């Protein structure tokens, strides 16, 4: 089997079940954005020298994201969804665990910190974009709502883990300041 199919040469792709869709469709955009997030996680994992437990969690999230993408590539006529509520419950346990460690916040923070935490903040924003894409599909067609719920919690997970890693690395959160002045050197 060849790697290329040539169906995309005219801007079309086949989703699970054989249905042809435009590559510009909301459904294709949604699972493509999930794929982008999965790739960003692969890069993030490759940059982690420590935090073996978090690396394993991120690898598990990659597996679940593949399921989410598969679910989004599956029209309602070809049911058999893979993403389950247990994935979200697992994620919520992890969020609670990491959120307890750094000091509580009463204001917004700027994304950043050490390199891995910064990558996790990037993953958080891509997860939110993926969620918005999935919502657009959900407004038009039936989808697996468990995938949407998982993506919603995932951005919270990345936020909690980024703050946890920055705290462990001795990097203070940079608090957002309102009405900042432009400083000139």
TrEMBL record:
Enzyme Commission number(s) of this protein: 2.5.1.17
GO molecular function: ATP binding; corrinoid adenosyltransferase activity
Domain Cobalamin adenosyltransferase-like, residue spans: 3-164
One Pfam family of this chain: Cob_adeno_trans
Lineage: Bacteria, Bacillati, Bacillota, Bacilli, Lactobacillales
Name the record gives this protein: Corrinoid adenosyltransferase
Taxonomic source organism: Candidatus Enterococcus dunnyi
Catalytic activity: 2 cob(II)yrinate a,c diamide + reduced [electron-transfer flavoprotein] + 2 ATP = 2 adenosylcob(III)yrinate a,c-diamide + 2 triphosphate + oxidized [electron-transfer flavoprotein] + 3 H(+); 2 cob(II)alamin + reduced [electron-transfer flavoprotein] + 2 ATP = 2 adenosylcob(III)alamin + 2 triphosphate + oxidized [electron-transfer flavoprotein] + 3 H(+)
The keyword Metal-binding appears for this protein: no
């Amino acid at each position: 089997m060849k790697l290329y199919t040539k169906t995309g040469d005219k801007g079309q792709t086949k989703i699970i079940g054989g249905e042809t869709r435009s590559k510009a469709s909301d459904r294709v955009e949604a699972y493509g954005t999930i794929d982008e997030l999965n790739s960003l996680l692969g890069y993030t994992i490759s940059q982690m020298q420590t935090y073996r437990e978090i690396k394993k969690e991120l690898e598990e999230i990659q597996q679940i994201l593949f399921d989410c993408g598969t679910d989004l590539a599956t029209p309602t006529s070809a049911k058999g969804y893979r993403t389950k509520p247990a994935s979200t419950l697992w994620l919520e346990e992890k969020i609670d665990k990491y959120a307890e460690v750094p000091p509580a916040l009463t204001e917004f923070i700027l994304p950043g910190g050490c390199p891995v935490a910064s990558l996790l903040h990037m993953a958080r924003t891509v997860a939110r974009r993926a969620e918005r894409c999935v919502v657009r599909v959900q407004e038009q067609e039936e989808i697996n709502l468990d995938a949407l719920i998982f993506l919603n919690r995932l951005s919270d997970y990345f936020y909690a883990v980024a703050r946890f890693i920055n705290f462990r690395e001795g990097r203070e959160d940079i608090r957002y300041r309102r009405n900042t002045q432009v400083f000139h050197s």
